[in-house]
């Protein structure tokens, strides 16, 4: 069985935006790099999503 995985920039951006929309906006440190690390450690976002978010924030 062959599994295809779409890891295009557009797909990662779509997934990340969906995850961001589901998170509580009441978090005080939402745009803090440590908070993004915490989300990844708690399995709320995937490593590729945190990488995308960190890259977006550092740009």
Topology:
Elements: H1 9-22, H2 33-41, H3 47-58
Helix pairs in contact: 1-3, 2-3
Description:
The chain is mainly alpha-helical and 59 residues long. The chain contains 3 helices and no strands. The chain has helices at 9-22, 33-41, 47-58. Helix 2 packs antiparallel against helix 3 (47-58). It is globular. The termini are far apart. The model has no long low-confidence stretch (mean pLDDT 77).
Poorly predicted parts: none
In helices, the fraction of residues equals: 55-70%
Q: Distance N terminus to C terminus?
A: 39 Å
Average pLDDT metric:
77
Number of helical segments?
Answer: 3
Class computed from helices, strands and strand pairing = mainly alpha
State the major sheet.
none
**Total number of beta strands:** 0
Helix-strand topology string = HHH
* Cα-based radius of gyration, to the nearest Å: 12 Å
Strand content: under 5%
The shape is globular
Defining traits:
59% helix, single chain, 59 residues
Short description:
The chain has three helices and no strands.
């Amino acid at each position: 069985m062959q599994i295809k995985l779409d890891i295009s920039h557009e797909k990662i951006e779509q997934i990340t935006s969906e995850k961001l929309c589901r998170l509580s906006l009441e978090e005080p440190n939402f745009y803090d790099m440590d908070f993004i690390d915490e989300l990844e450690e708690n399995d709320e976002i995937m490593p590729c999503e945190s990488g995308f978010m960190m890259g977006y924030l550092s740009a």
